[in-house]
Amino acid sequence: MTTDASQPTELQMMARQTGDLLLAKGATAQPADIRSVWNAFAKMETVPSKKYSAYDAFKARTAANDAIDRMLKMGEGDKLVRDVRKLRKGAVRVTVDFRDVEDLPRNTTELKEDDEGSKNNFFTPTDPGRKRYTLYIVWQPDKTPNDMPLLDANRYALGLSELADSVFHELLHVWYTHVYPNDHLGHGGGYNDRFFRQRLRDFKDELLVLDKTLKRRPPLRPRP
User: Fold this and answer.
1) 31 contact partners, CB below 8 Å, separation of at least 6
2) Which domain holds residue 139?
3) Verdict on whether the full-model pTM lies above 0.85
4) How far is it, in rounded angstroms, from Cα 196 to Cα 50?
């Protein structure tokens, strides 16, 4: 018995049919890489720090990328980025701008203290349903050994963790203004603020574990 080499074998036919069936059912579909999802709607800008050498002209972009990666590695960070990507059918765009507090734009009314003190991070515009946003994130140093006894269980030791938390916090505002457009911004006494606070808490609980297990680097002290 001879076979036609141009025709697929029975085994090849079965393999093709199985592959077609899996594709039809979506069984082979995998979640998109979270960095790719982030890059689809977000970009980053940095103004090098004049106070912290770890964020100078040579290291600022690397540090900012590391902070974003740290945020993306958290389960709640991954979920939030995918949620924001879906807003307005994928039309929302975000710029994350890292800089010293002294370099923040002063022609805005959004500048205010956040829940943990005067880090001065903010997002703009705050109007519900907009398509383009800027998240202003202030460079944060590592805590020095002298600071450590003063830290409580809810404080980060590493500057990159503070930055990751800040990016998540401001991005969460963007999500909130779209999902609850007639409410406050997330922690202004609105009816749905509990959802904002819970997502913040879930993210922070996860990141605090990582922050406390990472090997401590030399503290980032202000330049003399």
Assistant:
1) 82
2) 33-213
3) no
4) 33
